[in-house]
Fold this protein.
Amino acid sequence: PVVVLEEDDGERALPIWIGVSEARSIAREMEELESPRPNTHDLAKRLLAGLEAQVDRVVVTELLEGTYYALLVIRDGRRRVEIDARPSDAIAIALRVEAPVFVREALLEEIATHFEPSDDKPGVSL
C-alpha cells in the first residue's frame, strides 16, 4: 500500500509505501468507520487525551536508505516534545486528532512527483 501526501494549493505529491495494517488504519479513519476494538492509533489518541496533550503537527522529515522518517510534535501546555515515528503511524494518529501533516521542503524538492490536482480524490494534504 501507498499513502500519497498531496501539497495544498500545489502540484507536488509524496508517495510513501506503508504496511498493510497501517493502510487499513488510515483508510478506516478517512472513511469514518468504527472498529469493534481500538487499534494502536486509537490507543495513542486516547493516551494523548488522557494526558491532556495535543498533536501540534506531523512532519515527514527525510528519506534515508529507502526509509522515510517523521516526527510527531506534541504539546501539553507546558512543553513541546518531538517524538520519532514512522510516517504511517504519525499520519494515522494525525488523522484521528485532526492535526496537520507537513513534509520538509528539501524532501519535497528531492522526492516529490507532480500530479494534476483533483477535488474528487481522497488523500492527506500537505
